[in-house]
């Protein structure tokens, strides 16, 4: 699993793009990363999953814990690009209904210009 970060301190958002597998071997690293991000002064965390190939129950748990931590801190969390096997796993785990899917915040800003 690899990540790429984009932050806009003026607008208070942080975008995290994840690629590869989110599984037993990488979920703890992703959770640590998201918890560090949520410690920053942001109002919106966006997670781009368009390059995630595989997601297992450890990855689902990481998503749930990240969503709970964001909610506790009053940080909006959105996701994009959930497709293929990760989408099926989240659907089977009945997590999709509680996930907010939206375009990345930087794309929204570009269209406003």
What does this structure look like?
- With 113 residues, this protein is of the alpha/beta class.
- The protein has 4 helices and 4 strands.
- It has helices at residues 27-38, 57-73, 84-92, 105-112, and strands at residues 2-8, 13-22, 44-55, 76-80.
- Strands 1-2-3-4 form a 4-stranded mixed sheet.
- β3 (44-55), α2 and β4 (76-80) form a beta-alpha-beta unit.
- α1 packs parallel to α2 (57-73).
- The radius of gyration is 13 Å and the shape is globular.
- The N and C termini lie far apart (33 Å).
Helices and strands, with pairings:
Elements: E1 2-8, E2 13-22, H1 27-38, E3 44-55, H2 57-73, E4 76-80, H3 84-92, H4 105-112
Parallel strand pairs: 2-3, 3-4
Antiparallel strand pairs: 1-2
Helix pairs in contact: 1-2
